Amino acid sequence: MEITRERLPKQGGGGQKTCQNTKQERIDYIDLLKGFAILWIIWIHTTHPDFVGGPYRVPIFFFASGIFFKKRAFKEFLFKRINSLIIPFLFFYLLSYPYRIIVHFWDFRTLSNFNWFCLFDLFKSVPQHDYLSVNVPLWFLLCIFVIQFVYYFLMNLPKYILGILIILSILFKDEILSIGTPFMINNAFYWGAFFALGNIIGKSYVQLIQSMKRRMITLFCCIGVFVCCHLLQDYTTVPYFFENIIIHIKIIAFILLVIAIFSFLNGKKYMEFLRFYGKNSLIVLGAHILILIPLDRISFRVFHTETPLLGFLSALTTTIILYFVTNWLNKNLPYFIGKKEILKTR
Predict the structure, then answer these.
(1) Confidence (pTM)
(2) In a 3-state reduction of DSSP, which class is residue 27?
(3) 65 near 195, Cβ under 8 Å?
(4) Ranges assigned E (strand) in the chain
């Protein structure tokens, strides 16, 4: 989930961090946004209250990734994506294989029924997004790589053609996700709509909310659109075609709303904990399941039940442990988590 940040205008009224090792500016409130979303993902992967659900957390990352996407020379583009996405994917994916063996033995006290070939699940042509059974959340890294590779060749198309492709991917979401493909290709053609929207409108939106007045207007407009869509969705009966459109307008309004909210927290020192997880969201994505699942099993062994409170405590404990795991990985294995280049672009 590391996204490259191209140079964008600084925001008034708050400090802006810079990423020293890439010599590119970071937008602080986007790091806060990503921290918020990745902690949300940890929570939803354990027992949680109903309000924690919803279709918002994943689109946030695809939209944010699209904001900073910029076309480069193909070799540089390819090497950067391999360094920042494919190598971390392989690192966490291979690390998860012995982990899965251990968890399976924990659950069944035998390996006689273990699928020793689950490591090759990513080659299967199946319709669901979670076929990466070794470490399910890693589907994001594979999917975002496919999206960026495809979008590299599509981004110079006229905006109206890109708009048509976005609308079609939204309208035919269920059909696209039902197609069995390896390497998340079918999922990429749906989730790529949020990435493309981030790339098309994201930079302009970041510039728009530099002004406090425009930020406030934008904030209330997003709230208004979100509430209207929510009311239409809950209190009216419309054909699935229109319901699907309403849901996606609601998702986009939510993304723009939370970006505007976090822009008020730009540079605030008391948000450092959220900033940390946002900057290291790729590590959190790849490692959190390896911590959360054992904690959930220990919790169930002790309390013989699963409740939202116990799930929250597991998520909180996972978040704390991840702080130390993340620092260790950054210090000792930076080449394997996308923080340093294995393949040199220059």
Answers:
(1) 0.88
(2) coil
(3) yes
(4) 18-19, 24-25
Task: Give the burial string for 259-276 (b: 16+ CB within 10 Å, else e).
Answer: bbbbbebbebeebeebbb
CB 226 within 8 A of CB 247: no
Collapsing DSSP to helix, strand or coil, 180 comes out as: coil
Reply yes or no on whether the pLDDT at 53 is more than 50. yes
Q: Tell me which DSSP letter residue 83 carries.
A: I
Buried b (16+ CB within 10 A) or exposed e, 225-257: bbeebeebeeeeeeeeeeebebebbbbbbbbbb
d(CA 125, CA 109): 31
CA angle at 188 for the pair 157 and 246, rounded to the nearest 5°: 85
For 303-334, the pLDDT digits (tens) are: 999 999 999 999 999 999 999 999 999 999 99
Q: Encode 161-181: b = buried (16+ Cβ within 10 Å), e = exposed.
A: ebeebbeebbeebeebeeeeb
Spatial CA neighbour of 244 closest among 254, 232, 260? 232
* Whole-angstrom distance, CA of residue 126 vs CA of residue 108: 26
Q: Per DSSP, what are the bridge partners of residue 25?
A: 18
Exposure on the CB side of residue 181, measured as CA atoms within 13 A:
17
| pLDDT, tens only, 214-228 | 999 999 999 999 999
Burial label for 293, CB within 10 Å (0-12, 13-18, 19+), is: buried
Distance CA 89, CA 292 (A): 19
Of 99-108, 233-242, 271-280, 302-311, the one with minimum mean pLDDT is: 233-242
Question: With contact defined as beta carbons under 8 Å apart, do 214 and 208 qualify?
Answer: yes
